[in-house]
Structure formats: structure tokens, C-alpha cells
Amino acid sequence: MEYEEYLTQAMTTMAEAVERQLRDLLPVPKGPEGRLVEAMRYSMFAGGKRLRPFLVVTSADLFGVDKKYSLRVAAAIECVHCYSLIHDDLPAMDDDDKRRGQSTCHKKYDEATAILAGDALMTLAFEILADPATHPDALVRSSLIRALAGASGVHGMVGGQMIDLASENEELDMGEITRLQQLKTGALICFSVEAGGILGKASEHMRHLLHGYARDLGLAFQIADDLLDYGGDPEEVGKATGKDAGRGKATFVSLMGPERARRQADILADQAIEHLREFGDKAILLKGLARFVVDRRK
Amino acid sequence: MEYEEYLTQAMTTMAEAVERQLRDLLPVPKGPEGRLVEAMRYSMFAGGKRLRPFLVVTSADLFGVDKKYSLRVAAAIECVHCYSLIHDDLPAMDDDDKRRGQSTCHKKYDEATAILAGDALMTLAFEILADPATHPDALVRSSLIRALAGASGVHGMVGGQMIDLASENEELDMGEITRLQQLKTGALICFSVEAGGILGKASEHMRHLLHGYARDLGLAFQIADDLLDYGGDPEEVGKATGKDAGRGKATFVSLMGPERARRQADILADQAIEHLREFGDKAILLKGLARFVVDRRK
Predict the structure, then answer these.
(1) What ipTM does the predicted assembly reach?
(2) Would you give per-residue pLDDT tens digits along chain A (298 residues)?
């Protein structure tokens, strides 16, 4: 219990720090384009766990990286995450009206503004990473950008979203769902952890361990998400639940049933923690997070 | 006349080279995400003058940059240009059914696929630039990325698009229209020329000259575009004309009238050419291009 409080506290502190960073990076300009930045800020500061930023900063901490660097990378990744949510919520995509208990970006503004806000957030992510303020070593910056682009494009997040759309009325099997999720949500989670290793110029071996952790964590996270959609309280979750079943969408829960899915998420969390054994107590937050993502109720 | 043929030939050769490059960079993957890449390729290989790639390669040539580098940068910028067209054509934006004489991406596929294809093309642009194959010096790669992101985001292309949407029923004056166009189309044209300077590690002075050229060229290009919309033949232009007037949109032509706009475009082309005087005959293609953009009929 004491430990859980420690993690929650660390997550809150980190979320606040990354939000300060993001506010600095998103000043509202004068002129008609100000509305665009307002829409970006509206979606960006709608709450959220800031899980990916937490992963960046916490994994960078393993290697003693200055937070002035890792917080900027954390902000960049949150821009990508936020852009993906704005575009996913669009009428042509998932057509969602609510996100984190408030109107989605296209509902609050309009579709055109939401499309552009997403585009601009993605662009901002790369602009942040390419800025020398993010790391003095250009090779580090370039490696971060390459890894982020790889994780977000056709062979990552956007590809996963395409598979998701294409398979709305298809019966996916476990292998296919796992692949879909590894692209759609897993790739960006993996990058978040990988970014810490890039910033810290970690050894191949260390990066390998981090990657194993991130892979299991990402899958555990997704199964927990499916469980929340299946059985969560919409008030607490902050968005409509039961959507997947309503759309006849195959999920880990629809394929395995809730009990097996729950067990599977627990096993994955244990595995994730096991990958970090070598890091000992230094990795206590990352280990705690693995438990947190499967136990969370929103 | 002989000279014009030389330029046209060079543009065709360069367009073919950059298209080969793009085909290599866009292999269609197996699985349901293949549709996404098909949509990207559909829009990417719909023709087009490849003006921005031509600017990259030709300005890089001034500094003797190996084409294996400049062609990759050219491909990246064409990805950004193409993504912006796909998103601009969406029903929530300009709602265009035709582009370069064929159905727009969302008409040929669907809106969701078009949104994702745009997203994936933008991501690909940064992935290309961050790849060591684009330039062995990470500082060059990082500078290219920073400049491209700056030119494409809130303070560039996307910001310009936002202003354009926000001012559909506003009376813009010359200053406002100039600013809109400098963001919406000018920024990416400036980056294309700037990229040659970055790749060639050009001196501050050289970059300054190139920037002056690109600024005038961009504006001349936009006025010529407005003139085509005003008086062009839809068959020849490859898309509907008279759209701006139909929407009551202020353009350079609506503010200045076609004769003054034509003269202004000519003056800007002359100015653009003048900026490159120091480069002498080495800049013959860039100079010719300035004439070409104002004289083109599509």
C-alpha cells in the first residue's frame, strides 16, 4: 500500500512536469491560427495518465539522464499519442463524442480543426525531438526521431489503426489481435521505454531487457484496456464502455473470456517485471507500473 | 525555346528519379495494412510536377551534394506535400472530388483510409530524413528534420491551412493573404530550397540568397496558381477551376485583378532570379524554374 502510494505520487509529479513542459511548447499565437493551438491544447490538457511520458522519464532515469532532456522527449511522445487520439475519434474513424469525460476535439471545435490539430501535434513532436535543447548529441536526436517515426507509421501505430478498421467485421484470432495491438498501441509504448535507452546511450544488452519489458507491458496494458471496456464503469473510465462488444469487435476478452484475460494480463505483468531483474531497485517504478497497468480501474 | 526544353527535360528526369526513390520507400506490406500503403501510393503516383523535389535536388546540386542524398530528401518533402493534399481534399476541409484529373484519396478509398494515409506519409517523411542513408552526418539529418517540422506545423503549412479555413468568409487584405500563402504554400517551398543548403553545408550568405529566391518564387507560384484557378482550363489544370471565386475566397487575383496579378508574378520571378546572380550559370535551372512557375498553364 505504501508502495502503491509512492508510485501514484511519482506518476502525478511526472505528469505535472510533462504538462508544464507541454504548456511551454504550445504557446497560443496571435492571428487566426491561434484557434488551432487552442484545439491542440484542449485535447492535450484533458487529463490522462501520461503513461508514455512516465515510461520515457523513468527509463531514462535508469541511466542518469538529465530530466531536462527526458521531459522534452516525454512531451514529444505525448504529442504523438494525443494526435492519434484526436484522429481516431473523428467521425470517419471511431466516431467518438467523449474522451476522458469531455467532448472530443471535433465535437468541441470542428472536424477540419481536429484534423489539423492532429497533424500539427505530430509535426510538433518531431520538431521537439530535432531541437538541440532535447539532446546536445545530434545522433541521439536523429535516433530518437527514427525510432519514433518507425513506431508511429505504417509498421507501427497507423498501420495498427488501419488493421483495426479493416477488421471491424472480421473474426480475428489470437495471433492477429496480438499483432494488431502490438502495432496500434504496443509500438508507441515500446518506443517510450526505448527512448530512455537511446537518451542514456544504454548498451545493447540493457536495451534488449527494456524492450522485453515494454513488449509485455504493452500487451498487459491492452488486455487491461479491453477488460475495462468489457466491465468498467463509464463514469470512472471517462468514456463509453462496452463499445467493442457493441461493434462486434474481437478483443482479448471476447476471445479468452474475462477470467483468462485477467490471468493473462497478470502473467504478462510478472514477465515484464522479470525482464528488469538486473536493474534491481533502480527499476522499482517501472516494475510497479507493470502492476499498476493491470490493476487500474480507468 | 531551346532553353525551355532543357528545363522541361531536367524536370522530367528529376521527377522520374524521385518517383523511383519513392517506390523503393513505399513497398506494399502483406496484411490488412497493405491497403494503407496502396492509398499512399495511389495519391503519391498520381502525377504532379514534383516541383519541391526539383528544388531540393537542384539547390543541393549547387553545392555538389551527392544525388543519393538529395533524392531522399526530395522524396521526404514530396511525402509531406502529398499528405497535405490528401488531408486538404477531405470532406471536412476543401471537400474536393478530383485532383490531378483522378479521384481524390477519400473518394477512391474512404475517409478513414485517407486520414491515415496522410498521417502515414507525414510520418514516413521524418523516418526517411532520420535514416543515416539520407546523410552520414547526424547533425545534417537533425537540421533537415527541424527545418521541415518548422515549415509544416503551426508556424508553417498547417497554420496556413487553419488561417485559410478560418477566413473563408472574411475579407482579407493583401498583407493577410500574403501571410496566409507564405505559411500555407511558401514555407514548404522555402524549406525545399533551404534543404539544398543544409545538405551542402552552405555558408550563411549562400543560405540567405537561397532564402530570398525561395520566398519570391513561392509567392510567384501562388499568384500563378490563383491565376490558373481564375482563368485556367479545368481539363488542362486537372481539377475544377473557378473554385476560389465560387467560395467567395479572397485571392491575389480577386484583390489585384488578373492583369496586375500577372505583372506582380512576373516581377517576383525576376526578383527571385536576381537573388541567384552570384551563382551564375550554375543556377540556370533554378532561374529557369522561376520563369516556368509563372508561365505554366497547369
Answers:
(1) 0.95
(2) 567 889 999 999 999 999 999 999 999 998 889 999 999 999 999 988 999 999 999 999 999 999 999 999 999 999 999 999 999 999 999 999 998 889 999 999 999 999 999 999 999 999 999 999 999 999 999 999 999 999 999 999 999 999 999 888 788 999 999 999 999 999 999 999 999 999 999 999 999 999 999 999 999 999 999 999 887 666 666 666 777 766 777 889 989 999 999 999 999 999 999 999 999 999 999 999 999 999 887 7
Q: Hey, where are the domains in chain B? A: 2-295
Cross-chain residue pair A119–B123, CB shorter than 8 Å: no
Distance from CA of B152 to the nearest CA of A (A): 7
Quick check: A198 contacting B, CB < 8 Å? no
User: How far apart (Å, rounded) are the C-alpha atoms in residues B86 and B97?
Assistant: 11
Helix (H) or strand (E) holding A18: helix A2-25
d(CA A297, nearest CA chain B) in Å: 30
| Region B2-295: CATH code | 1.10.600.10
Residue-wise DSSP of B179-205: HHHIIIIIHHHHHHHHHHHHHTT--HH
Model's pTM, two decimal places?
A: 0.95
Backbone φ/ψ region at B233: left (φ over 0), alpha (ψ -120 to 50), beta: beta
- Give the minimum alpha-carbon distance from A278 to chain B in angstroms, rounded to a whole number: 32
Interchain proximity A112–B93, CB inside 8 Å: yes
Element spanning B133, H or E = none
Who among B31, B120, B153 is closest to A120 (CB)?
B153
